[in-house]
Amino acid sequence: MGKGVFQVPQAVNEPVKSYAPGTPEREAVLKAYKELYNSKVDVPLYIGGEEIRTGDTAPMNPPHDHQHHLGDYHKASKEHVEKAIQTALDAREKWANLEWEQRAAVFLKAAELIAGPYRYKINAATMIGQSKNIFQAEIDSACELIDFLRFNVEYMTRIYEEQPESSSEAWNRLEYRPLEGFVYAVTPFNFTAIAGNLPSAPAMLGNVAIWKPSDSQVYSAQVIMEVFKEAGLPDGVINMVMGDPKMISDVILEHRDFAGLHFTGSTTVFKNLWKQIGENIHNYRSYPRIVGETGGKDFILAHPSANPKQVATAISRGAFEFQGQKCSAASRVYIPKSMWEEVKGFVVEDVKSFKMGSPEDMSNFITAVIHEASFDKLAKFIDAAKNDSDAEIVVGGNYDKSKGWFIEPTVILTDNPKYSTMCTELFGPVVTVFLYEDDQWNETLKLVDDSEYALTGAILSQDRYAAAEATKALQNAAGNFYINDKPTGAVVGQQPFGGARGSGTNDKAGSILNLYRWISPRTIKETFVTPTDYRYPFLEE
Predict the structure, then answer these.
(1) What is the pLDDT of residue 205?
(2) In the annotation, is 143 catalytic?
(3) Is the pTM of this model over 0.85?
């Protein structure tokens, strides 16, 4: 399973299209949007070569227009999940033994299909089903997914190139086997790219996968499956099932051949799955690999030397792009008191300039949150901030669910560093600001570090000593740390993504580190002249 003499195209990041008024890509994505919006889809289970329609369905509705019926997806029974597992296991041997360059070709072709004929369809599906504006859809469902596929191929070849030292007496080599069994990929609603990467990264290394997409992302998940099938992915390598998440997980995690979990989602769900795996550990053929990227309570910390306009822009973009529904979104901000009035003025001006509505109107910066449960949770915390004595609404604070799940971008100011919205992950367009005394920089660093999460964080400072001090003091506070930038926008191949503490296993999606988790190497030593006498020289008389 070594790399051999073949070379693959060097991975480069997919250029982001502008979608500016009058550009051909703007017209193309609007056309795709209208076509998808006005057609009904019926999303089946994908098990092997079958598209299974169970008749037990759930509707799909755009978050920004929740009365509009996009179509339905079919839900699996226990028997369908068992069928998916067996189908994956039946496909495993042939797929695992396929030459690496043949597997690479499938995913390189998938990348080119997304870059070309599927680009506007997958972007439009993400805009409709997940309420992303066109820029957020472009950098996610097109560019990032393309980057995952291309860079993972390059990382795979680097892994295969790594071989041990040999001598004239013996030839040593490493064989990079896939895991013995199947991988369970559980993906979130907020990134189409993550949904495509979590099952495909293990598959690229020769594994087979059962993929359970989020109920709120099925619309674009179907497009991913269409791309994989057109790219030539053999039947059974990736099987997509939807339905009751507890039932699906129970069936999968009880199976003897469960070999790995590739997860992105909530911290609580991940911990429960880990516990369930532990309780079943005696049932498994091998110790399962557990890889997860979970919650975050991501921070922005401004030093007194920072530029107030830069701080404000980091807040406006970092907290409110995609309605704050990024694992990396800024949700707690620490600002020196001397700077607050100026920063507040810029942020309030920004928020009041935001347009909100359907992503079809490309002048809208803000669209809807994903579903009613999210809307209700956010509204509850906003209402509490209006009434609590230790908090106030600086700007925003309104919401409306009559047509879509619209939460106005909201800035809360608190004098309590442990106020609820400074500690609780909200996953929405709500950011909380705490003001610190200018001479309390060191104490504030400790305050920022005191969090159960450690995903992303940003510091803004024109003082190099302060930047260096923060980088060291906050080394465990964020797996992705940004200096003089917002804490969002990680790019595959440039900022490998993942955090620790309650934010995950920090296996860095978008890097070679993640792919190492999906292989089980075998060392082979071949001796050329085999000894025929057990005696060593020290035994000679």
Answers:
(1) 98
(2) no
(3) yes
